[in-house]
Amino acid sequence: MASSNHHPPHRTHVPLPSDSGGNPFDDEAPPVPIHIVTDASQLPAEFLNPSPERQLVVGFDCEGVDLCRNGTLCIMQIAFQDAIYLVDAVEGGEVLINACKPALESAHVTKVIHDCKRDSEALYFQFGIKLHNVMDTQIAYALIEEQEGRKRLPDDHISFVGLLADPRFCGISYQEKEEVRLLLRQDPKFWIYRPLSELMVRAAADDVRFLPYIYHKMMERLNERSLWYLSVRGALYCRCLCINDNDYADWPPIPPIPDSLMVEGNAPEEEILSILDVPQGKMGRVIGRKGVSILAIKNCCNAEIHFGGDKGPPDKIFIMGPVREVRKAEAMLRGRMMD
C-alpha cells in the first residue's frame, strides 16, 4: 500500500513476536511505513471488509481534543505488523471514519487497545460506532497479576507507560509520552493542527506500534478463565460510558460463560455493568474528602467503580464486576447518597 503523495514518507519499527530469543526491540528489522490516511482507499481491503476467513489483530488507539462524547476525534491509529495507518479524522471527516465502522464493530478484527472507555465513548457519540471485540491490555494486565498471585489496590490501573516498562511485556522506557503530555497541557488542541508534524506522527505511531507484540505476550500467559474475563470486561469497558435509552439492546451481547468453565462450585459469576444516577449535589458526599468515602467502598467490593468526571456525564457512577459485588457496591453508594 503506497503512502499518499501529499505527505512525506514516515517509518518506524513494529516489534514482532519471535521464538528466536533475540531482542525484538533492537531495531535491526526493516522499518515499516507509517501511512497518513485521508481517504479509505489508502487502508487495507481486509480491514475495510472484515471476514471470518481473515481474522485480524491490530493495535488501536484514538487521539483527539478532549476525547469523549463532546470532544473531537482527530486521529485513529491502526497498527499492522507490516504498516501503521494514521486515519486522519480532521481531513478525512465522517466519510473516512464511517468507512472503518465495519472493522471497528467486527468480531473478526481484534482491536488491541489500552483502556478503551473514552475511545469507545467518542466513537459512539460522534460517529454512532459501537466498538466491539477489543483486547484491552489494561484489563489483561490486571488478570495476569491476579493469576500470578499479586493483589492490586482498587485504583491501581496500569498506565500504558507502566505497561511498556514491565519486562514481561516490553521492558522499555517511553519518555516521549511525557513530552506529548506536556504539549497537550500547554495546548489542548495539539492533535487538531494540520499538517501533522514529525512529533505528532511519531507520537501517534508509538502509541500503537507495540500493541500487537504485547497482545501475543499476554495471550501466552492468560488461562481459559482469564480469557473469558478479558472478553467480558472488554465488552463492558466498550459500553461503559456509552449510555443509551434502550439498555444496550443494539450492542453485541456480552460473551456467555463457556460450558468448559461451568464447574460445580467453581464457576465464574456473571459480570454486569450498572449505572447509578447521583442526585444533584450528592457526588461530593459519595466521593468524600480526598476520596476517602469512595475508596472505602472500593476496598469493600470486588468491582470497578468509575465516574463520568469532568468529561461527563458528571451525574453518573459506573460499576462493573460480578453481580453480587456490583449489587453490594450499589447499596453502599446509595447509602452514601442518603447520608
Automatic annotation (TrEMBL):
InterPro entries per the UniProt record, alphabetical: 3'-5'_exonuclease_dom, KH_dom, KH_dom_type_1, KH_dom_type_1_sf, RNaseH-like_sf, RNaseH_sf
Gene3D superfamilies: K Homology domain, type 1, Ribonuclease H-like superfamily/Ribonuclease H
PROSITE patterns: KH_TYPE_1 (PS50084)
Every 3'-5' exonuclease domain range: 34-223
Coiled-coil region: none
UniProt key word Magnesium: no
Example GO molecular function: RNA binding
Domain K Homology as annotated: residue spans: 270-338
Region (Disordered): 1-31
Keywords associated with the record: RNA-binding
Entry annotated with the keyword RNA-binding: yes
Gene Ontology process terms (BP): nucleobase-containing compound metabolic process
PANTHER family associated with the record: EGALITARIAN, ISOFORM B
Name listed for the protein in its UniProt record: 3'-5' exonuclease domain-containing protein
Organism (species): Hibiscus trionum
